[in-house]
Write a structure and sequence with these properties.
The chain is α+β, with helices and mostly antiparallel strands and 252 residues long. The protein has helices spanning 34-44, 59-62, 67-75, 143-157, 177-182, 189-192, and strands spanning 15-21, 48-56, 78-85, 90-97, 101-109, 118-127, 130-138, 164-169, 187-188, 215-219, 223-230, 241-247. Strands 3-4-2-1-12-11 form a six-stranded mixed beta sheet. Strands 5-6-7-8-10-9 form a six-stranded mixed beta sheet. α1 packs across α3 (67-75).
Amino acid sequence: MACGPWEDDSVQDQFTVLTYNICSGRGLDGVQDLERTRDVLKHSQAQLIGIQEVDNRNEVRSHNIDQSHYLAKSLNMSYHYAPALNDPAQFGNAILTSFPVLKQDSILLPKRGTNEDRSVAIAKVLVGEQPVTFMVTHLGLTQGERLEHVELIRTHLENIATPVVLAGDWNEQPGSPAYKKITEVLLDVATESNQEQPTFPYLSLSKNEATVRIDFIFVTPEINVENVEVIQNWSSDHLPVRATLSFKKKGG
């Protein structure tokens, strides 16, 4: 385990985060195969994983599997599931982690003129000796809905005393209103590291080509961004984003 993160910036204090909209395990080829999803997560070697569009016991779409439980067990990780929908089956966001979990929570983000509620999965974990709050979400389909969701997230952030990592599918690109609202208080790791790459094939002319960046990892300022990469694997209709992070020296 890493030594005290506020005392040293060595490689031992680095930790890895992944965000991935898994599309219930359905790839860009239309094949539903959760084992491919598991392999992507395993090969990423991420220690904090945020996944979106996660099914629980959906008989029609995903073989009646509790997907977050299956993935966590396969990876020997703890998990926290935050469903946004419960009928006819649960659907939402999940956290998988190899770090000790200190606390779990969730927020419901209500629908506004669209068909589904959204959620935020929250876990306070211990990274070395430093508690970190990890939040995972998938914002709504309209601009007004996303802005309301971000306001609810920002209100929750005001009561968090630890460093924060917020990850998820934003359903909009950098420079748009909800993105601007969250980056007033958090840092976009891809922008901070000058490693911005597209994650979703919106209006793509090629079968396997991402054209827009809508999947993000944000952090509070006491977290350093060491590296960011988009993993080129189409086991979903989104690409996973992996970040290597560390803690700034105390007082530095």
